[in-house]
Amino acid sequence: MKNRENEAIKMGSEKSPGFAIRILRIFTVIHPDEIFTVLLLSLNVFLLLASYYILKPIREALILAGKGAEIKAYLSGAIAILFIFVVKIFSSTAS
Predict the structure, then answer these.
(1) What are 1-48's pLDDT values in tens digits?
(2) pTM for this prediction
(3) What per-residue string of b and e applies to 23-35 under the rule 16 or more CB within 10 Å gives b?
(4) Where do the domains of the chain lie?
(5) Which of 2, 30, 86, 94 would you call most buried, defined as having the most Cβ atoms within 10 angstroms of its Cβ?
(6) pLDDT band at 84, cuts 50/70/90?
(7) Closest to 26 measured CA to CA, from 2, 9, 59
(8) Contact (Cβ atoms closer than 8 angstroms) between residue 35 and residue 18
(9) What is the dihedral of CA 46, 50, 51, 52, to 10 degrees?
(10) Which residues contact 35 (CB under 8 A, 6 or more apart)?
């Protein structure tokens, strides 16, 4: 792949790849027309993870302040059981 890039640059038929493409090519194969989609998806994943790490401690503090540690343990178990059904429903819907 790098040989093709070098040949294209030498021939002058294509301009050199941009900064974002050069950085992203370290991790994966990417084409110039995909750069906007990749950056948008990366921003989406970052915002989801950031919101999760902000909301989780707030949720746990509210549970502990209102009901106590015993209810927090029961809720964690209930959420785990609920996700078993949610994942099964999602997998059957996706299939």
Answers:
(1) 555 555 544 544 456 778 878 888 888 888 888 888 988 999 999 999
(2) 0.53
(3) ebeeeeebeeeee
(4) 1-30, 41-95
(5) 30
(6) very high
(7) 2
(8) yes
(9) 110
(10) 18, 20, 21, 24
Q: At what angle do helices 35-66 and 69-94 cross, to 10 degrees?
A: 150
Choose among 62, 88, 63: nearest CA to 75.
63
Residues 6+ apart with CB under 8 A from 1: 29
Question: What end-to-end distance do the CA atoms of the chain give, in Å?
Answer: 36
Give the tokens for residue 78: 């209930």
